[in-house]
Specification:
Elements lengths: L1 E10 L2 E10 L2 E11 L16 E10 L4 E7 L9 E4 L11 E4 L1 E3 L2 E3 L1 H12 L6 E6 L4
Length: about 140
């Protein structure tokens, strides 16, 4: 399976994207994402987006989220920056991570817990080849 996040819209203090999960070219799931506002950074402890690129993923038992969450890293962004995909609806809840929802508006994403649970059911126990993050021009 492959996961792609395409960032397409800036909102106040955040960035909206669309997440798509595919397997052998078949689309399995779509939702929206919310990340902190740019500029991108690889630095730890910053509530900012990670750079566009291809990331590896492993499941992480997150103490702060009290559940299993995907943990993303690559050669530029270390594991110990703890970039997770988790629940939350507004930019103040991102903590430098990626939130998911079934819709979006000027305040963030909507129905995050329900959306995350659907995302989790599709991904858990499956091999995720990579997560690719792209940004449309100007985002």
């Amino acid at each position: 399976m492959k996961i792609k996040i395409n960032r397409f819209k800036n909102i106040h203090d955040g960035t909206i994207g669309k997440l798509t999960i595919t397997d052998d070219g078949k689309r399995l799931f779509e939702c929206f994402t919310l990340e902190p506002a740019g500029a991108d950074t690889t630095e730890r402890g910053k509530d900012r987006r990670i750079p566009a690129g291809r990331y590896q993923m492993e499941w992480h038992n997150s103490p702060s989220q009290k559940r299993m969450c995907p943990l993303l890293w690559n050669e530029s962004v270390p594991k110990d920056r703890y970039i997770l995909i988790h629940t939350g609806n507004c930019p103040q809840e991102t903590s430098g991570c990626i939130l998911v929802g079934d819709g979006h508006n000027a305040a963030g994403v909507t129905n995050s817990v329900k959306t995350y649970n659907s995302f989790f059911k599709i991904c858990i126990g499956k091999h995720i080849e990579f997560i690719e993050i792209t940004s449309e021009e100007g985002i």
